[in-house]
Amino acid sequence: MNIKAKEIYSEVYQVLNLLGNDYIDKLPTSLINMLKEKREVNYNSQYTDNIPLNEQNIKKETMSIIVLLYLNYWCKDENEKLEVKNILKENEDKYQMKLREKYNPDNIFKNHIQETKEINQNVINETAMIPYKESIFMRIINKLKSVFYIKK
């Protein structure tokens, strides 16, 4: 098991200890034992109960596990479960919208076409026609040719 997973288990275990025995007693003992066994013993993150968890330095995965525990074991009735599920659905919808805006193929091609047009416009502006000026030597030769009317 990797270090990050062990740290997540440690954080969940510490949050559960912070919540108290009322919440721990509602969980299966096998889950508590698994958290104790798989956690990183030396990993110690300090959480306080006067500051909300989302304002503390907590991993997203830890928060997800706590929400899952709340949904499965701590919700009092079906209305509360439904409310949590709606919040999770709204968050997922927001996340999917961000992904859709960022990686939408239509927008990617539109942006690419717009960038190509801007590059072409810059190239046209940079390659303006320069008037050709004959050198003095060529002007003299052409003048002599015209005077003597030399044909090729």
> Describe the biggest sheet?
none
What's the helical proportion of residues?
A: over 70%
- The number of E-state strands comes to 0
Overall pLDDT confidence: 82
Radius of gyration: 36 Å
The SSE order reads HHHHHHH
Tell me the fraction of residues in β-strands, as a range: under 5%
Shape: rod-shaped
Structural class: mainly alpha
Count of DSSP helices? 7
C-alpha end-to-end distance = 89 Å
Give unreliable regions as ranges.
none
Q: Classify the oligomer.
A: single chain
Characterize the structure shown:
This protein is mainly alpha-helical. It is 70% helix and 0% strand. The protein is built from seven helices and no strands. α1 packs across α3 (29-38) and α1 (3-19) packs across α4. The longest helix is centred in the middle third of the chain and has 26 residues, at 78-103. It is rod-shaped, with a radius of gyration of 36 Å. The N and C termini lie far apart (89 Å). The relative contact order is 0.07. The mean pLDDT is 82.
